[in-house]
Amino acid sequence: MGGKIKVAIAGVGNCASALIQGVFYYRNAKENEKVPGLMHVNFGGYHIRDIEFVAAFDVNKQKIGKDLSEAIFSGSNCVPKFADVPNLGVKVLPAPILDGVAPHMREAFSVYNPKEIEPVNVADVLREVDADILINYLPVGSYEGTRYYAQAALDAKVGFINAIPEFIASDPEWGKKFETNGVPIAGDDIKSQLGSTILHRTLVQLMLDRGIKPIKTYQLNIGGNTDFLNMTDESRLKTKRVSKTEAVTSLVPGAIPTRIGPSDYVPFLDDTKIAYIYLEGEKFGGFPVTIEVKLTVVDSPNSAGVVIDVIRAVKLALDRGISGPLLSISSYAFKHPPVQVPDYVAKRWVEEFIEGKRER
Q1: Which has the closest alpha carbon to 51: 348, 234, 317, 315?
Q2: Per-residue confidence of the chain (360 residues) as pLDDT tens digits?
Q3: Which of 99, 179, 253, 312 would bridge 46 by S-S if both were Cys, CB 3.0 to 4.6 A apart?
């Protein structure tokens, strides 16, 4: 163990920018330091600075051909700059467009003309740069695109992190493909450090722990980045709603009326996300109890630390020859993992995985 973790990124948007900035922001953290958003500075023998970015793929002509350090601040990216990123010597390559770009997003994403630019073969590039891990940061609703990158990871024998709500790690058929091919996978749909999903889950768990019966709930989310603009098309939200809803309702025995998911795009919010959570329950004597919460966060950095931990967990799996869905880190870090468990259980699983006491 030890050495570099070579990471490739599909989709150089706000989340990729926050991840790359975060690696440099905390690259000199001391091993005994508590870094906000990370489980450990030293995660199973790997420091934050051991992460090295070796390839990047995008469809935005304002990013293609630029060094990755420049591309993360280009185009419609609006995540605030919080770290200086040196020249990485990694040019953003033209990715296959597939279904990653909804018709209403072509202008926002400045999509290249396929008649002028030829997309690369992602699997070939992953082999050329000797990547360890590929992260899928495509826009929500990228059904074909996600499966293209998942297959590329299988073909190139690199670990796969599916950060978006397309079901790969949690799909038994795909999970079996990764296990059979000797490749680890973590997913699906990354949780934030403290986002609407983890907060909603915590409130539901609190009710259950205090003997209160959840009756009904909703969670409404608004934001101003391209993720929210993309999700104004309801047809791209099917798996997103499933992912966020099941993350909450999986804790509740029986079905309750629920509405959870993105609600609107407010351009001037930029990378700020606002969530409104309503939770109604029944307590002793049949009396009602209602919780109403407003959460405001800078959206993209909210998941970056979680992804840094996931990267290192997947690398540990590669080192140990473990393949298929990684149940521990997936349950801890994703909204729609192969197995849903309470968050405190998932955290314990990850610690056991780091120590080698748990295989997956």
Answers
A1: 315
A2: 569 999 999 999 999 999 999 999 999 999 989 999 999 999 999 999 999 999 999 999 999 999 999 999 999 999 999 999 999 999 999 999 999 999 999 999 999 999 999 999 999 999 999 999 999 999 999 999 999 999 999 999 999 999 999 999 999 999 999 999 999 999 999 999 999 999 999 999 999 999 999 999 999 999 999 999 999 998 898 899 999 999 999 999 888 999 998 999 999 999 999 999 999 999 999 999 999 999 999 999 999 999 999 999 999 999 999 999 999 999 999 999 999 999 999 999 999 999 999 988
A3: 312
Nearest of 157, 158, 110, 115 to residue 134 by alpha carbon = 158
Amino acid letter for position 279: L
Within 8 A by CB and 6+ apart from 357, the residues are none
H or E segment and range at residue 45? none
Q: Tell me which residue of 354, 352, 312, 305 sits closest to 2, measured CA to CA.
A: 312
pTM for this prediction: 0.95
Listing DSSP states for 15-81 in one string gives HHHHHHHHHHHTTT--TT---TT-S-SSBTTB-GGGEEEEEEEE-BTTTTTSBHHHHTTSTT--PPP
Q: What's the token pair of residue 289? A: 């109890």
- Say how far apart CA 223 and CA 231 lie, in whole Å: 10
State the amino acid at position 111 in one-letter form.
V
121 sits in the region (left: phi over 0; alpha: psi -120 to 50; else beta) called: beta
What 8-state DSSP symbol labels residue 96? P
Cα separation, 15 vs 308, whole angstroms: 12
Q: How far apart are the first and last CA of the chain?
A: 17
Tokens standing for residue 270:
């930029």
Displacement of CA 33 from its chain's centroid (Å): 24
Residue with tokens 């949780």: 191
- Rounded distance between C-alpha atoms, residue 192 and residue 106, angstroms: 27
